[in-house]
Amino acid sequence: MASNKTSGAAALRYATALVDIASDSGKIDAVEKDLNDFEAMLATSDDLWNMVRSPLISRQDKQEAVQAIAKKAKFQDITSNFLALLAQNRRLSMVVAIMNSARMDISRRRGEIKANVQSAFALSPAQEKALQESLTKAMGQTVAVNVQVQEDLIGGMVVTVGSQMIDDSVKRKLERLKIAMKSRANTNVATDEKAAG
Fold first, then answer.
1. How far is Cα 55 from Cα 85, in angstroms, rounded to an integer?
2. Coil, helix or strand for 116?
3. CA neighbours closer than 13 Å in the CB half-sphere of residue 56
4. What is the largest distance, in Å, between two alpha-carbon atoms of the chain?
5. Which portions of the chain are predicted below pLDDT 50?
6. How is 1-50 classified by DSSP, letter by letter?
7. How far is 56 from 102, CA to CA, in rounded Å?
8. What pTM does this model have?
9. How far apart are CA 30 and CA 37, in angstroms?
10. Second label for 13, Cα 20 to 30 Å away, from 86, 163, 173, 190?
11. Could you tell me which residues are beta bridge partners of residue 161?
12. For 96-125, what is each residue's pLDDT tens digit?
């Protein structure tokens, strides 16, 4: 448990340092885009994910690999240097936790509130923008949307903003229907028994 707390605190420290530098340089939006792009790369490349996590790959090799990726993806120097620093300090395996902390810090500094959206399918940029705008309007405050695909929802989505949850998934609707049918069946059984008695 202590090691989880320690790694969480370290992730927060690295994230805060990155956001401070990005903010001071006036490049917070560009760095945020780099982080989103790097996370998308991790999600789609097993090789990259394994390289980031592997304790068998040397610091030097990891550093060179992330710098090459950053150069090819045209990341900001801040992002490239930051990823290299993580590799040098043997913290690259924490990069996902660090990126999540950094995004939360960026949202907080902008005065945004975070909405976690679980969707049965990937949203197009236009759909994500429309969702973000409607949530912003509903909450009366800027809402930053974080969308994750969860196919077992079958259709629809689950939106969580703070302590509020809107579950408009097909899975949940089917569960409600099942409960309603079960209670109706129980009522019918009770009615039949009453009639028989």
1. 16
2. strand
3. 2
4. 83
5. 1-2
6. -HHHHHHHHHHHHHHHHHHHHHHHTT-HHHHHHHHHHHHHHHHH-HHHHH
7. 27
8. 0.62
9. 11
10. 163
11. 115, 164
12. 899 988 988 888 888 877 788 888 888 788
